[in-house]
């Protein structure tokens, strides 16, 4: 149950397209919201009303479906929007001689979900930053950082979008044995517009929205 808009993935969970008697039936609300309309249902008259609420959504550049990643951490939720992170966590030390472990650490995923049943949210530009810090003498030293492509676009009701970033940091030439912390830096608020009402939306991102940081031991074995 899902669709692509301008090459970007959007998901819906309540209905899917159906072919019947040679015709294709699609969930009208999601289609109209993508085209810039708000949709309402009158249960008494059994009618659907669509009103123009803004321009069609634009391509969410740089965002796509990530490949599944075991060990994903951190589902954070606000009142409307949720964030999922895809850090890889290993129980034992990571070996710099293990291509599989290094490939996992160099692939990071993050996703946004709109949990509202009836509110489409047009988000302003939103950026996240991946950080690697090395533990030394009880302190954490920033040794690497890289930003995800900024997100700006509309999340229809009960939909989501996600992306995958290649970090290209974990390798035997760059990383020395020791303890490392992986952390995601994020803004204080989501800001945007409620597509239906046109009202500004400001959603605080709490300090505990992500499931902490990931600490990884590294050796050369």
Give the topology:
Elements: E1 2-5, E2 8-11, E3 18-20, E4 23-25, H1 28-34, E5 37-42, E6 47-52, E7 75-77, E8 81-85, E9 94-95, H2 99-105, E10 107-114, E11 121-126, E12 129-136, E13 139-147, E14 151-155, E15 159-166, E16 178-185, E17 189-194, E18 200-204, E19 214-219
Parallel strand pairs: 9-19
Antiparallel strand pairs: 1-2, 3-4, 5-6, 7-8, 8-10, 10-15, 11-14, 11-17, 12-13, 12-16, 16-19, 17-18
Task: Summarize this structure as a short list of keywords or feature phrases.
five-stranded mixed β-sheet, 19 strands, 221 residues, four-stranded antiparallel β-sheet, mainly beta, 48% strand
Strand content: over 45%
| Biggest β-sheet strands, sense, barrel | 5 strands, mixed
Low-confidence stretches: 58-76
| Backbone structural class | mainly beta
Distance between the termini: 44 Å
Helix content: under 10%
Lateral arrangement of strands in the main beta sheet = 9-19-16-12-13
Q: Roughly what is the average pLDDT, rounded to an integer? A: 75
The counted number of beta strands is: 19
> What is the chain-wise order of helices and strands?
EEEEHEEEEEHEEEEEEEEEE
Q: Which value, in Å, is the CA radius of gyration?
A: 21 Å
Question: What would you call the shape?
Answer: elongated
Q: How many helices?
A: 2
């Amino acid at each position: 149950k899902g669709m692509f808009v301008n090459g970007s993935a959007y998901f819906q969970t309540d209905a899917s397209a159906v072919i019947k008697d040679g015709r294709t039936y699609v969930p009208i609300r999601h289609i109209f919201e993508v085209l810039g309309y708000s949709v309402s249902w009158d249960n008494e008259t059994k009618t659907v009303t669509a009103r123009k609420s803004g321009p069609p959504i634009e391509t969410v550049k740089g965002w796509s479906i990530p490949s599944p990643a075991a060990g994903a951490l951190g589902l954070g939720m606000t009142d409307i929007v949720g964030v999922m992170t895809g850090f890889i966590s290993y129980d034992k030390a990571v070996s710099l001689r293990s291509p599989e472990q290094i490939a996992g650490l160099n692939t990071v995923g993050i996703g946004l979900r709109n949990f509202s049943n009836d509110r489409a949210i047009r988000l302003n530009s939103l950026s996240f930053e991946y950080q690697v810090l090395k533990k030394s003498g009880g302190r954490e030293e920033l040794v690497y950082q890289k930003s995800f492509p900024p997100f700006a676009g509309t999340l229809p009701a009960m939909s989501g979008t996600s992306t995958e970033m290649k970090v290209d940091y974990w390798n035997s030439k760059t990383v020395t044995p020791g303890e490392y912390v992986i952390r995601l830096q994020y803004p204080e608020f989501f800001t945007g517009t409620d597509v239906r009402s046109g009202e500004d939306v400001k959603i605080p991102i709490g300090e505990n929205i992500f499931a902490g940081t990931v600490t990884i031991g590294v050796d050369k074995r």
